[in-house]
Amino acid sequence: MDLGSSSISWCDLSTEEVVSEPNLIVVDQKRWKVMDVGLSAASMEGRAEGNLIVLRPIRGGRLDDVRLAERYFRAVIKRISSSRRGKPHIALATPSFLTTAEKRVMASALSKAGAASVIFVDSTVAAAVGAGADIQGPDGVMVASIGAQTTFAGILALGDSIETQNGFVGGESLNEAISRYLRDVYQLIMFDSDIEELKVALVDLTDGATSVVATLKGRHVDTGADHTVEVESSELTSAVRSAVGSICDVVLNTLKQAPAEISNDLSKQGIHLVGRASLLRGFDELIESLVRIPAHHPPVVERAVVLGAAKILGQVRN
């Protein structure tokens, strides 16, 4: 299982089938009860009425509210267990900055929600294993994962991490930059889901990319009335440059702290880029130009972490 800030993913070890849903819950504030989770909860974002509110129970790899998280996990585990007998054994991918106390709380919440057992897997290790990298050999391998709120990069060899770096910046940082630009320059407000689509469709980090004009629809920041504007894609690319730079800094800082002899290994194998935000057009080329090391996406770029956690669970269980 991978608990991201924007989505939760789980992988069936026997089939390697991955299910991913928005990391959202609908809560009845009056009874403080979880009414719905995942896709159904996402459909109510910005539209919930009365006592109902839409919340994220997990932010930056940490539980935002332990009570809500337990109820959230119960709903998720119920879905996981619906097609099989017995309680599930769970390998949970977590960032390296999570403390022992935080892991204990998370394990307790999962156990109370119905998990038979819980083991923790470092997200960097899980990403590398899921990407198909050989981390058991003597040659250094590197993975960079760009999540919704957190970016982490790591260099691994002989089954262990040589160097890891984390940064609290990710895909949502780019979304916020676009949203802020549209609000300040065009007085336009759009739903988060629409901003995500804009980012994927229009942002292009390729050197010399051709700019296109897009018609955007939303609400006026002052009146709330329907508002339509025309925006150059190059404007949105410029708006996210600072956040993209912060993501690249995580990768650069990881390489700076690594032993010099690792450089030759990495120049052969390259950097494995995983996470949805790494799929922005031109991001791999930008990384290559900065670090002078090939960067590429494995076939499972959006599923690498959860697949890696499942494979590690299989090794432990066997």
Account of the protein in words:
This protein is an alpha+beta fold and 318 residues long. It has 2 domains: 135 residues, ATPase, nucleotide binding domain (Nucleotidyltransferase, domain 5); 163 residues, ATPase, nucleotide binding domain (Nucleotidyltransferase, domain 5), CATH 3.30.420.40. Helix content is 39%, strand content 27%. The protein contains 11 helices and 18 strands. The strands form 6 sheets. The chain has a 5-stranded mixed sheet with strand order 13-12-11-17-18, sandwiched between helices. It has a 3-stranded antiparallel sheet with strand order 1-2-3. A 3-stranded antiparallel sheet has the order 5-4-6. A hairpin with a 2-residue loop joins β12 and β13. α2 crosses α3, α4 crosses α11 and α5 crosses α6.
